[in-house]
Design a protein that fits this description.
Chain B: Belongs to the binding-protein-dependent transport system permease family. The structure holds two protein chains of two kinds. Chain A is an alpha/beta fold. Chain A has a domain of about 170 residues: P-loop containing nucleotide triphosphate hydrolases (Rossmann fold, 3-Layer(aba) Sandwich), CATH 3.40.50. Helices cover about 30% and strands about 25% of the residues of chain A. In chain A, the strands form two sheets. Chain A has an eight-stranded mixed beta sheet with strand order 6-7-8-3-9-10-12-11, with helices on both faces. Chain A is globular. The radius of gyration of chain B is 24 Å and the shape is flat. The chains are: A alpha/beta, B mainly alpha. Chains A and B meet through helix 2, helix 3 and helix 6 of A and helix 8 and helix 9 of B.
Chain lengths: ~325, ~300
């Protein structure tokens, strides 16, 4: 399979009054055709910045690219002008946002919002546009599409609006969809419906999905590949099976442990990872997870571990991978 | 919708009645009357004058007479002008003031929001600073200073436009600009802040993610949502502009409605006070109604119904 998208050594920073925040630090990953890649991590770990960098929707300034390349269908997106990028955005790649309650323009009819991008990119007629809008609403299973396209977003429920957002993202038949926490704002049953819908559409149309989430339950259900980010870096990457069954990085392990389970004892407290991620004004020299890791060793403090391959698809960055790690003195926590 | 309009109409009539009543009794509670100050007047003449204008009757009686006349659309005779009725004075002054007001309004509505939107789009850059300097000048420099400066520099020194007077279009330019500065500046500031808020909304990002041009994002998605706060202040603004400004009309020698407001008070011209106040109330209520209709046209979430919320 060909790589549809390849991110190479991407580094994104934000200029602020207090100095530079290194939100994304040298990350590389790839997305193949029809693959679903999940990017997971806590709030502020750089997931959304990564997604917005690919779409080039970051406000610049304050954001700027410090380095790296983003290859999409054989072209480096970071070399493109605004105009060229507009032709790709909403055409070959599109995005689904977190909060469907605020992501639709309250003063424009839903049907028009869905096809707006299409009209812009392909200059189709009004009638074609309306038919297309109807087709899209049917695709995302919105009942009574003839009536619905003439309505405004406030007449839709949260789940229905997210369906509209999916329709909006799918309308130009993109190669890549970036879903930035698409179900976070929805309740659990609606969440399941939306995920099911996305899977069905993917099966039918075969686009690739980058799924950004902090919910590992969704990851297990949806994705082929998982990228775990922490403090702007990728600390573990692998097939979903590898990540769940052969967890290498202590951070990933803790993330997995903090997923609430139905079979948990009622009185058992929910697990959480103590502490907060490091301040990215002054990124730590060593492993950024050092302060919160209960397996941390002396070497972790000032030295960043190299990437270690566990299989052709599975790699992680942790000193525990090192052959000498077992002999090292463990820090008692 | 029909129900709403009828309800609104009924409410308006009640409001106007309240304005009439309150103004009437407030006005009469102030000591003195229209004729007391007029120097050497024999008591007999004074009594006669009171009788002629019905001021010798009790307040409730006068009030009832005034109300019945008002229902016929008659504001009564002016107590100072010997030749004109209040209706005459308003129909003479209003078109002048309204003409000037509409001109000022057009200037303000075209340039105010545009300036504000520009400032928001180029936040903390040169266009923003220029727009906000203009806005601060517009808000903080009083219209009588603006007016006199225009007369000094544009009318007198370089002789482009007439100093004052009324009759041709060229007479209206300077006063209209002077009159428009305050609302223009106010709208610019309002538009800037509301535009900044809208530009930070998620749906703007959605619009950008569709790959449409920057201009389309701003014009189709941002402006329509950002204009709402402007529309809501428009009602008061328009009615103020329409009924004229005493200061501007005085400076440029314009025979508008603005002067009548001040004259009526200083002269204790009871009927003129009532007439101008009620007229202003009617214009204001009408404008506020139009604003609510405009609101509904712009924002589909706002539905006007006869029922309470």
């Amino acid at each position: 399979m060909e790589n549809l998208l390849e991110v190479k050594n991407l580094a994104v920073s934000f200029k602020t009054f207090f100095g530079e925040v290194e939100a994304v630090r040298n990350i590389s990953f790839s997305v193949k055709d029809s693959q679903t890649v999940a990017i997971v991590g806590e709030s502020g770990c750089g997931k959304s910045v990564t997604a917005n960098s690919i779409m080039q929707l970051l406000p610049m300034p304050p954001a700027f690219f410090k380095g790296g390349e983003i290859w999409f269908e054989g072209e480096n997106l970071l070399k493109k002008t605004d105009k060229e990028m507009q032709k790709i955005r909403g055409n070959k790649m599109s995005m689904i946002f977190q909060d469907p309650m605020t992501s639709l323009n309250p003063t424009i009819r839903v049907g028009k919002q869905i096809v707006e991008g299409l009209i812009h990119h392909h200059g189709i007629s009004k009638q074609e546009a309306e038919e297309k809008a109807l087709e899209m609403l049917r695709l995302v299973s919105v009942p009574q599409p003839e009536k619905r396209i003439k309505q405004y977003p406030h007449e839709f429920s949260g789940g229905m609006r997210q369906r509209v957002m999916i329709a909006l993202a799918m309308v130009s038949d993109p190669k890549l969809i970036i879903a930035d926490e698409p179900t976070t704002a929805l309740d659990v049953t609606v969440q399941a419906q939306i995920l099911e819908l996305m899977r069905e559409i993917q099966k039918e149309r075969g686009m690739s999905i980058i799924l950004i989430t902090h919910d590992l339950g969704i990851v297990a259900e949806m994705s082929d590949k998982v990228v775990v980010m922490y403090a702007g870096q990728i600390i573990e990457e692998g097939n979903t099976k590898e990540i769940f069954e052969n967890t290498k990085h202590p951070y990933t392990a803790k993330l997995l442990k903090s997923v609430p389970r139905l079979d948990m004892d009622k009185n058992e407290p929910l697990h959480s990872i103590e502490g907060t991620p490091p301040d990215l004004y002054i990124p730590p020299l060593g492993c950024p997870f050092y302060d919160r890791c209960d397996k941390a060793m002396k070497i972790c403090k000032d030295n960043m571990p190299d990437e270690e391959n566990h299989s052709p698809t599975h790699k992680s960055r942790c000193w525990l991978n090192h052959p000498l790690a077992k002999d090292q003195e463990r820090r008692s926590s | 919708m029909k129900k709403y309009i009828f309800k609104r109409l009924g409410m308006s009539i009640v409001t106007i009645w309240a304005v009439v009543t309150i103004t009437f009794f407030l006005m009469h509670s102030v000591p003195g009357d229209p004729f007391r100050k007029e120097g050497k007047m024999s008591p007999a003449v004074y009594e006669n004058l009171l009788e002629k204008y019905g001021l010798d009757k009790s307040y409730p009686e006068q009030y009832m007479i005034y109300l019945t006349n008002l229902l016929k659309g008659d504001f009564g005779d002016s107590m100072k002008s010997k030749v004109e009725t209040v209706n005459d004075m308003i129909t003479r002054g209003f078109p002048v003031s309204a003409y000037l007001g509409v001109e000022a309004l057009l200037i303000a509505i075209v340039f105010g929001p545009a300036l504000g939107a520009l400032a928001a789009l180029y936040q903390n850059k040169v266009p923003d600073y220029i727009a906000m300097i203009v806005a601060i000048i517009g808000i903080s420099v009083p219209s009588f200073i603006m007016g006199t400066m225009f007369i000094q520099f544009i009318a007198k020194n370089i002789n482009w436009l007439p100093i004052g007077g009324w009759g041709e279009f060229k007479h209206t330019i300077l006063p209209a600009i002077a009159l428009s500065m305050m609302p223009l500046a106010y709208m610019a500031r309002l538009m800037r802040s509301s535009m900044l808020e809208v530009l930070g909304q998620d749906y703007i990002k959605t619009a950008q993610s569709k790959g449409i041009s920057k201009a389309a994002v701003v014009l189709k998605h941002a402006v329509r949502n950002a204009i709402l706060p402007i529309v809501s202040v428009l009602g008061t603004l328009i009615s103020n502009l329409l009924v004229g400004s005493f200061v501007i009309e005085k400076i440029f020698g314009i025979p508008g409605l603005g002067a009548l407001f001040v004259q009526s008070i200083t002269n204790r011209d009871y009927t003129l006070i009532m007439g101008t106040t009620i007229f202003y109330a009617i214009v204001l209520i009408g404008m506020l109604f139009l604003v609510d209709l405009a609101y509904m046209a712009i924002d589909p979430r706002i539905k006007l119904t006869g029922e309470g919320r």
